[in-house]
Amino acid sequence: MRLVLASTSPRRRELLARLGVVPDRVVGPEIDEAPRPGELPRPYALRLAEEKARAVAREADEIVVAGDTTIGVGRRILNKPADETDHRAMLGLLSGRRHHCLSAVCVIGLDGKARVRVTDSVVAFKRLTDDEIDWYLRSGEGEGKAGGYAIQGRAESFVRFLSGSHSGVVGLPLFDTRALLESSGYRFA
């Protein structure tokens, strides 16, 4: 049995390594990640995780794992910032308030069945000053990240409260990933 990671995210590879899992193949899925009109954050994260897993060609002896991390503020989805102005606006929106980090994982097992779960972690940022936002933007850490931040870096100093899965906020909820892999026939050594 072989494992395919449908993601080029180095963070997801690092998180899988914490489980003692090294993918046999790593493939970047090609999908449209634009939210559908009126789509809410939770269904969006679940849909993307499954679409990413299904976008990768799978051999009969392969299990595919894919994930998606979505930041939700109310009904709004905060994707990756498009530019510095967008990034600054995202951090301003997250400043001083709670938001949801929805980390979905999809595993397609040897039986071809897709199993999907989502972890909803609540994260609260301190009220950010303009200087703190400037400092974070200069670091470049949040570029290409959902919600414009990486909790495993400097942004962790902004977090005053977290309830849920820290690994989920980083990019892959390890508890759910392990459970889905086991139910899909993967054997941990």
From TrEMBL:
Annotated EC: 3.6.1.9
Catalyzed reactions: UTP + H2O = UMP + diphosphate + H(+); dTTP + H2O = dTMP + diphosphate + H(+)
Residues flagged as site, Important for substrate specificity: 11, 69, 152
GO function terms (MF aspect): dTTP diphosphatase activity; UTP diphosphatase activity
Stretches that traverse the bilayer: none
Keywords for the protein's UniProt record, in alphabetical order: Cytoplasm, Hydrolase, Nucleotide metabolism
Xref: Pfam families: Maf
Active-site residues, record numbering mapped to chain: 68 (proton acceptor)
Origin superkingdom: Bacteria
GO cellular component: a single term: cytoplasm
Tagged with keyword Ion transport: no
Localization terms from the record: Cytoplasm
Cofactor(s) annotated in UniProt: a divalent metal cation
GO BP terms: nucleotide metabolic process
Protein role: Nucleoside triphosphate pyrophosphatase that hydrolyzes dTTP and UTP. May have a dual role in cell division arrest and in preventing the incorporation of modified nucleotides into cellular nucleic acids.
Family, similarity comment: Belongs to the Maf family. YhdE subfamily.
Protein name listed in UniProt: dTTP/UTP pyrophosphatase
